Amino acid sequence: QKSVCLTSWRIKVLDGNTAICVEGKRKDMKSLLWHSTAVTECIARNQVKTTSGSIYVLQGNIDSASMRKEAYRFIKRFTYGFSKKWKEYIEEFLEERRR
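Predicted structure:
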């Protein structure tokens, strides 16, 4: 299974505030800005699986500067990657956005 390595990564909300994807610079494509399909599973703190079946390896910490518009509390929860409670955090975050 091929994995995609992203640097300067961040969490991006997909249309309709129903799911999130990861976005960042792809190491194998000369830092092309790339985003995944919806994140469905957390394999490790720095590895997520998406609806397309791809595995994304997140290098380094979240790019909080590019996410300044989002709530600080939300970004802080993902500073070092995805935690075991990531789904809970995302659900809460998306719900707030839908209001």
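Summary: Helices lie at 72-77, 86-98.
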